[in-house]
Amino acid sequence: MNSALALEVERLRVELDGTRVDIIDEVSFSVLAGHVLGLVGESGSGKTTAGLAVLGHTRRGARIAAGEVRIEGRNVLALSGLERQSLRGKLVSYVPQDPASALNPALRIGKQLDETLSEHGFGNAEARKARITEALGEVLLPGDEVFLRRYPHQLSGGQQQRVALAMAFANRPRVIVLDEPTTGLDVTTQAHVLATVRDLCQAHGVAAVYVSHDLSVVATLATDVAVMYSGRLVEVGPTSALFRHAAHPYTRRLIEAIPELSGEHALVGIPGSAPRPGLRPQGCYFAPRCEYVRDVCRVTFPPVETVVKGHEVRCYRYEAVLQESLAARPAAPRRPELQAEEALVAIRGVQASHGARQVLFDVELVVRPRECVALVGESGSGKTTLARCIAGLHKNYEGEISFCGDLLPAGCRARNQETRRDIQYVFQSPYSSLNPRKTIGQIIAQPLRLFFDARGDEARRRVVEALERVQLNSSVLDRYPHQLSGGERQRAAIARALIAEPRLLVCDEVTSALDVSVQAAIIDVLGELQRDLDIGLLFVTHNLALIRTLSQEVAVMSEGRIVERGLVDSVLDHPKAEYTKKLLSDTPSLEAAMAAAR
Amino acid sequence: MSEAGAAATAVAIPPPARRRRPWFALLAGAWHQGRTKVGLLLLLLLGGSALLGPYFAPYSPTEFVAPPFSTPSDFGWFGADLLGRDVLSRFLWGGRTVLALSTLATLMGMILGTAIGLIAAYSRGVLDDVLMRAMDVLLSFPQIVFALVLAATVGPKLWLLVLAVGITTTPRVARIARGAAVEVVERDFIRAAEAIGEPRRRILLGDVLPNITGPLVVEASLRLSFNIAVVAGLSFLGFGIQPPNADWGLMINENKNGLTIQPWPVILPVAAIGLLTIATSLIGDGLSRSVAGIDRGGRAKE
Predict the structure, then answer these.
(1) Strand partners, A402
(2) Cross-chain Cβ contact A392/B210 below 8 Å
(3) Domains by residue range for chain A, with CATH
(4) Contacts A461 to B, Cβ<8 Å
(5) Could you tell me the maximum CA-CA distance found in chain B, to the nearest angstrom?
């Protein structure tokens, strides 16, 4: 492997158009040929902006104000628009987050790949054909005529993303920017795509910038990691050094927020939120949320300090941070003991369909009071449908769902008021589950009015109580959902469920739309509720790493069937079903990656 | 209530900090467009003269004050009409009916249409099909023909005019309401309301309706501008207010033969009707741009 410097980014600054407000600034990093740099950060940290700037591109409303991007010594930013355009796809290429919107739905796969090549004057038709077959082979797709004649919608999400990869690698670029390319994919597909990216980068000596919010993925894939916070690079270093000896407090907090399969450590969220461009404080931007903060941190932004060669950090207090061992993380709180009790919800032989398509086959599941059952499966496994059947949001099923021994009718309109109160449902996306035209106070008071006929002061008092339970300040009462962050919205949604005093809480992928630091806080809130409030919890998720911290029992779903059921420890440590084993081995894990690097 | 309780509430619940209601943003966004200001100014001027005009009219609208078709040089500000009545007075008296009838008809159409659109969007299935196909049937009649048929069978009654124009407004509003609501009823917060057993009526009025006010407000102002023209047209054709009462549409019809000698009794109402429709559609345009701007901003933030 040659280790020539393929990409150098120096003091890059991107501003909001027409203002002097920077989105990112002082971003410098370099990537060797064949290496993968993981650019990590939470939503709004500027990681995508930095990734796009490598191509000399910005989103609308932003512009590159200063800095250099050198690809094999050539400054991309000094080139004219047309020259830059001819570089893209040839010298530097891009793989977007959502392949479904990146591929042209009206063109056949073969035609689209051919365009990428012919646009850059690649050989004659015959040579292009050969290269297309080769490129598709590299991403483990068939390069035959039948496949080339397909349209994007005829491929699965994973296949589409691999076509996008093939397209990006087709011209043998020197640099490739991947913007969260596996976010929408299942873990198994994600594992394939990650392996493909790693192999191709090494085989062709391509320098890759892998933009991601998922530290576990970055730990498995990247050779180096750059951590972004609020538009600044706060720490850069080789992957193992950075994760084992994180020198920036923010990096530490991020690592502590990552859920682990072992579930030994408590998940710790980061309170507060990152400042937005234009609203950043003086001094270090992380200072308001930092536990190591000193007066000097509030005056000027820290300069770049070198921990060891190649590992740089922007923190005045990095030596103090390094003193503390990462292993000293708080242990996970004990989950309540499982008690043999009557079932709260018992599901027997449930078959459900969407229209003519059957999605659930003969499903059996039991949730007891004070118990958390995790329902794990990939997208399309039917886990959400099952959760919705229980909550009465999906009517089209056969079989028995009983609650406290009584058979539940299908559909919430057919159920009585008491059952509707006893079973509460929290939705996946807090962006669509709260009415944008109502205040948080009005939204949370809605169940109160229906179930307890509470109004006025009494209602307001109980709403404030519910908000406190989910660690929200009462100042959000009169705000509208769009004035809240994603994490705050999801807490409000949980508060709405809690105020009904339910006996069963169904949580459908409640953290999948949120950042890891926020996810950790939400999981923390749910665990506390379950310990304090004696409610049963059905926790639906695709993330195996989350369940050990929260649940006693787990049910693994695949293609509409429950393939394995049992206590969390026994299922995760000694999986019996092939599918569970596969799922476990494909789940990216920081611990596993660290162990492998050792 | 004890004072201690009130004090405790005051501590626990801080006063609302920055409370900008979404519809306020809509209006503010519209106000920042020049077209809205021009539209409002015109509406204020013409609406004002129609509403308050009678108090300022120099003569009674039915009083004969000068020889027929006296020009402004012979009599008053705008001369006299075919029967020798003061043109200015008749103009000032004649706006009320047009404005009142078209506003009432628009209101009726908006309420009916919104209700039908909401119910269709929420219920889906057969009811949706039945309601919307019925709307399509209504839509296939030209507005003015429908009104003419009704008026010809029952006779020229004012309530009939409102009914006819209101009914023909309904399907257009229903389509807009349904189109906007279909997307809203798919969102999770509607599922959340259903799951806790919120009655259908409250879901429609409390959860869906506030989310489609933008397009509805825009539609209302556009419908109003169309309906002003239709109502004026119907009274021109003799199905509105009956002579000798003053009315803009009627004035045009009565005086069209004298256009070459005394054009003012035609020009004044024509200009007023024209400017009124322009005013309401300018306002509608401003509102719709504001809605689009808010949507763009809202999406970009996500």
Answers:
(1) A346, A407
(2) no
(3) 250-332 (no CATH), 345-597 (3.40.50.300)
(4) 9, 12
(5) 81
CA distance A426 to chain B (A): 8
Instruction: Spell out which residues of chain B touch residue A451, defining contact as CB-CB under 8 Å.
Output: 196
Q: Hey, what are B76's tokens? A: 């008053």
Between CA A518 and CA A489 the distance in angstroms is: 11
Collapse the DSSP code of B176 into the 3-class scheme (helix H, G, I; strand E, B; otherwise coil) and give the result. helix
Q: Which residue, among A415, A425, A446, A494, would best test binding to B if mutated, counting the most B CBs under 10 Å from its CB?
A: A446
Give yes or no for a contact between A160 and A99, defined as CB atoms under 8 angstroms apart. Answer: yes
CB half-sphere exposure, A291, CA atoms < 13 A = 10
CA distance B7 to chain A (A): 12
Domain coordinates in residue numbering, chain B = 32-301
Number of neighbours of residue A561 by Cβ within 10 angstroms: 16
Q: Verify whether the Cβ–Cβ distance A482 to B301 is below 8 Å.
A: yes
**Contact between B220 and B104 (Cβ < 8 Å):** no
Question: Going by DSSP bridges, is the β-strand pair A536-541/A372-377 parallel, antiparallel, or unpaired?
Answer: parallel
Contact across the interface for B16 and A478, Cβ inside 8 Å: yes
Best of B188, B212, B299 to disrupt the A interface by mutation (most A CBs within 10 Å)?
A: B188
Distance (Å, whole) CA A133 – CA A143: 5
Nearest-angstrom CA–CA distance, A553 and A571: 9
As given in the structure block, the two tokens for residue A585 are: 């081995």
CA distance linking residue A467 with residue A44, whole number of Å = 26
What interface predicted TM-score (ipTM) does this complex get? 0.76
Report the distance separating Cα B14 and Cα A283, nearest Å: 30
Residue A221's closest CA among A192, A248, A245?
A192
**Per-residue pLDDT of chain A in tens (598 residues, 90 and over written 9):** 446 888 999 999 999 888 888 889 999 999 999 999 999 988 888 888 999 999 888 888 888 988 999 988 888 888 888 888 888 888 899 998 887 778 888 999 999 999 888 888 888 888 999 999 999 988 888 888 889 999 988 888 888 888 998 999 888 899 999 988 887 778 888 888 888 899 999 999 999 999 998 888 899 899 999 999 999 999 999 998 888 888 999 998 888 888 888 777 778 878 777 888 888 888 899 988 888 888 888 988 999 989 888 899 999 988 888 888 766 667 776 666 666 678 889 999 999 988 888 889 999 999 988 889 999 988 778 888 999 999 999 888 999 999 988 888 888 888 988 999 999 999 988 888 999 888 899 999 999 988 988 888 888 899 998 898 888 888 888 888 888 888 889 989 999 999 999 999 999 988 887 888 888 888 888 888 888 888 889 999 988 888 888 888 999 998 899 999 999 888 988 999 999 998 888 888 887 777 776 5
What DSSP string describes A9-37?
EEEEEEEETTSS-EEEEEEEEEEETT-EE
> Which residues from chain B sit within 8 angstroms of residue A446, using beta carbons?
193, 196, 198
The C-alpha atoms of residue A77 and residue A83 are separated, in whole angstroms, by 10
Say how many CB pairs under 8 Å bridge A and B. Answer: 83
Largest distance between two CA atoms of chain A: 78
Asked whether the beta carbons of residue B13 and residue A392 sit closer than 8 angstroms, the reply is: no
Whether residue B22 and residue A457 make contact (CB cut-off 8 A), yes or no, is no
A421 in contact with chain B, both atoms CB, cutoff 8 A: yes
What global pTM score does this model have? 0.79
**Does the beta carbon of A413 lie under 8 angstroms from any beta carbon of chain B?**
yes
Q: Are strands A553-558 and A561-567 parallel, antiparallel or unpaired?
A: antiparallel
Of B190, B235, B57, B35, the closest CA to residue A434 belongs to: B190
Quickly name the fold that domain B32-301 has: MetI-like fold (1.10.3720)
Angle at A86 between CA A84 and CA A88, to 5 degrees: 75
The pair of three-digit structure tokens given for residue B180, joined into one six-digit string: 């906007």
